[in-house]
């Protein structure tokens, strides 16, 4: 087992070599004769890594790499911080995150920067038995940027029903995707109600009720409610006359 080399201030250890010119690295294996190994050192270059967003803690990391080496291995030791509403994009050589660092040799003290992109989430829209304007009946998906409401397609329709809103399929709660900030993957289901319209009185004792052509039968509870309302109006009419 090879010993750990000492510390040479301002340098980094590059490994053991079998030749004085330090071109032949030692390969681990059985030693069958007396062998002299030579430590290879390189001038240490400081790489300062910036989290590159307000309030980051820590805001910077200090790494050391050998002169002429790339910093990718050292960068892999950093735990990427969690930044709410953002995702880590890549390493950059400038704070504006316009030039990527892809492993170029470090030959001087260097600053590198984390690049970030705003997080985006899919919003699933289940028409719940309705039909989209393009004739499809399956769920549609919209992308939303963290903190923004969803951009909605033209609404679905359903014979004899009115779209009254959307519900969160995870919680069952009402959810207005046009005003509610999206902060995670979201699944919504269309909310429908019978389309019943009371027309103005036209001289008869009862207000005229109209039900659009229905693609499905109304539930008995809905029919009972309509009948109860009509009976109530008939009673009020009889009392007045």
TrEMBL record:
Keyword presence, Transmembrane helix: yes
Matching Pfam families: Flg_new
Membrane spanning stretches: 206-230
Origin: domain of life: Bacteria
Keyword entries, A-Z: Membrane, Transmembrane, Transmembrane helix
Annotated compartments: Cell envelope
Transmembrane in keyword set: yes
Chief subcellular location: other
InterPro entries: InlB-like_B-rpt, Listeria/Bacterioides_rpt_sf
GO cellular component annotations of the record: cell envelope
The protein's name: Uncharacterized protein
Classification of source organism: Bacteria, Bacillati, Actinomycetota, Actinomycetes, Bifidobacteriales
């Amino acid at each position: 087992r090879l010993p750990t080399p000492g510390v040479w201030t301002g340098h980094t250890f590059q490994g053991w070599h079998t030749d004085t010119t330090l071109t032949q690295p030692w390969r681990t294996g059985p030693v069958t004769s007396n062998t002299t190994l030579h430590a290879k050192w390189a001038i240490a270059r400081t790489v300062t890594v910036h989290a590159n967003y307000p309030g980051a803690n820590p805001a910077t990391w200090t790494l050391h790499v050998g002169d002429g080496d790339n910093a990718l291995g050292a960068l892999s030791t950093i735990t990427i911080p969690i930044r709410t509403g953002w995702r880590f994009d890549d390493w950059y050589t400038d704070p504006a995150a316009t030039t990527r660092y892809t492993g170029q040799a470090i030959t001087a003290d260097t600053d590198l920067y984390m690049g970030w992109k705003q997080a985006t989430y899919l919003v699933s829209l289940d028409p719940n038995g309705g039909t989209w304007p393009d004739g499809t009946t399956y769920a549609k998906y919209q992308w939303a940027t963290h903190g923004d409401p969803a951009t909605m397609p033209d609404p679905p329709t359903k014979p004899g029903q009115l779209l009254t809103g959307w519900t969160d399929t995870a919680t069952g709660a009402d959810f207005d995707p046009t005003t509610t900030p999206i902060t995670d993957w979201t699944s919504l289901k269309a909310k429908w109600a019978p389309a019943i319209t009371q027309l103005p009185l036209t001289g008869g004792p009862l207000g005229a009720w109209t039900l659009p052509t229905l693609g499905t039968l109304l539930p008995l509870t809905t029919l009972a409610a309509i009948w109860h309302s009509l009976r109530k109006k008939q009673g009020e009419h009889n009392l007045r006359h």
